[in-house]
Design goal:
about 20% strand; seven-stranded mixed β-sheet; about 500 residues
């Protein structure tokens, strides 16, 4: 076993997903000695992209919101130097998302005034409904100080935060069309009727309605830019170093062990991996069983099935919007679909390679998929899953492509090459036990048992990442601020971000 005795770090961060990278950036910029340990060859978690057939496909960062000048993510990205070498393409302001629900097509525009105007064109005479909805969204936003990059002085007990998103929208109007339009971005947080709180719906919807962009080129650029900055600030990053356990002294962790039998010493440990996986690293006698079980038994969001396509040259037009289709008259359906009828939904996007283009070389299609559908193969590796698995995923891919063909006639004939990802792919690369898209699910029924603090029951072990707050660039950025704020002045940090 190799002991790194010469060097002791102020912080060791487990995992190089966006939460780990942002937290490392903040702490190393503040003058701390920071080490990131990553199990994969590539950095970035869901920021990772992979190259097939000359196309770069993102594993998770499909588009970004609130990136207009002065908006929340714009300020955050400026602070993290993410505009210096990376270009972002703004989606169609009149319809950044086109949603077809059982044959009725809606355009979701950017900006709340456009959004309200579009709503009233689809549903005339419902001024009170849209104004009430807008009021409730802003009430949920105002109750989340950090979302507005303000210091959270105290907990807000506004009961709108933990009401059911589905029930709140249903209470606004009995018209199912109105309910579907207001929840049209549901797949961005894989909402569940009986679990998703209204605040999740409100924050995610507002985030994208404010403005929506795609990264030009691969999403690895974000991870690589952050990694370069961390190194410039004196931080270290080691990949192919899977953490397998800890060393202890009294109640604290003193060091981290990796699968290469290397030992790294640090004063504080921050885990960017799933809380359930983090619990597996902790010796049984170090934390109470009730806490361990709560972290390990939290319900996660559903996983996904994705088809990555190389298109024949100049055959499929670039779409400067995302396209979603729901076969049933219910945008909540993907989270509780019937396996016998799968697929009944798809999300399609065309990743841009440059700022202006008429055609796209690459297309990504995603839909929800339960982990149970691949559970029989969970003990296998990519190379040992066998003929049955490969036949199964090919059949599923063809079903999904056939559904796209219904909405885009001639689509199948334009495909040159195909790559397929299943929940097992997400499990392997992202590290969640069930290939979950967005980690733990927020549940308004179980606020206390579902809550995950950045502090753990071990005094010098902390958490960061999508399981603390919301998922995506929005939630993960906020969780990085929360965790970093434990060690540096959060009010000053927010001031720097607001003035970036």
């Amino acid at each position: 076993m190799h002991f790194n005795l010469k060097k002791k770090y102020d912080f060791i961060i487990l995992g190089s997903g966006l939460g780990g990278l942002l937290t490392a950036f903040i702490l190393s910029k503040a003058g701390n000695k920071v080490l990131i340990l990553e199990k994969n060859p590539k950095l970035g978690g869901t920021l990772q992209s992979f190259r097939r057939f000359g196309c770069d496909f993102s594993t998770g960062m499909h588009y970004l919101g609130s990136l207009d000048e002065g908006q929340m993510l714009n300020k955050i990205f400026k602070y993290f130097n993410l505009f210096e070498t990376i270009e972002y393409k703004k989606l169609d302001v009149d319809g950044f998302e086109v949603v077809n629900v059982a044959g009725t097509e809606y355009k979701i525009p950017m900006g709340w005034e456009r959004y309200k105007k579009q709503f009233l064109e689809y549903f005339p005479g419902n001024e009170e409904v849209i104004e009430r909805y807008y009021y409730l969204v802003n009430r949920a936003i105002d109750a989340q100080a950090l979302y507005n990059l303000n210091h959270p002085e105290e907990n807000n007990d506004d009961n709108i935060l933990m009401k059911s998103a589905y029930e709140v929208l249903k209470s606004l109007s009995p018209d199912v069309g109105i309910q579907n339009f207001l929840a049209a971005l549901n797949f961005d947080y894989v909402g569940e009727k009986d679990k998703t709180p209204f605040y999740v719906h409100a924050l995610v919807s507002n985030y994208f309605i404010k403005s929506s962009y795609r990264v030009i080129g691969d999403s690895d650029q974000i991870a690589n830019s952050l990694a370069n900055s961390i190194r410039e600030y004196g931080g270290e990053i080691l990949n192919r170093q899977k953490v397998v356990g800890f060393l202890y002294e009294d109640k604290n962790i003193t060091a981290v062990k990796t699968h290469k039998e290397e030992i790294f010493y640090g004063d504080r440990i921050i885990s960017n991996i799933h809380p359930a996986n983090t619990m597996d690293l902790i010796d049984n006698d170090r934390i109470k069983k009730i806490y361990r079980n709560r972290m390990k038994n939290m319900k996660n969001t559903i996983s996904s099935f994705a088809v990555h396509l190389k298109m024949k040259e100049n055959s499929f037009e670039y779409l400067n919007y995302n396209y979603q289709y729901f076969k049933q008259n219910d945008v909540w359906y993907p989270s509780y679909y019937d396996e016998k009828n799968w697929p009944e939904h798809f999300f399609l996007q065309t990743p841009p390679l440059k700022m202006e283009e008429d055609y796209c070389n690459c297309v990504q299609i995603l839909t929800a998929m339960k982990y149970d559908e691949v559970k029989k193969w969970e003990g296998t590796t990519k190379r040992t899953r066998g003929e049955e698995y490969h036949r199964w995923k090919e059949e599923k891919a063809q079903k999904l492509i056939n559904m796209v063909e219904e909405k885009f006639p001639g689509f199948k004939d334009k495909i040159e090459n195909i790559n397929i990802s299943t929940p097992l792919s997400f499990k392997d690369y992202i590290g969640t036990t069930d290939g979950s898209m967005y980690g733990r699910i927020s549940d308004f029924n179980n606020v206390v048992s579902n809550y995950v603090s950045h502090r753990t029951k071990i005094p010098n072990l902390y958490l960061t990442g999508q399981n603390l707050n919301l998922h995506g660039a929005l939630g993960v950025s906020l969780s990085a601020l929360i965790t970093s704020g434990e060690f540096i002045n959060l009010k000053n940090l927010l001031g720097e971000i607001n003035n970036a």
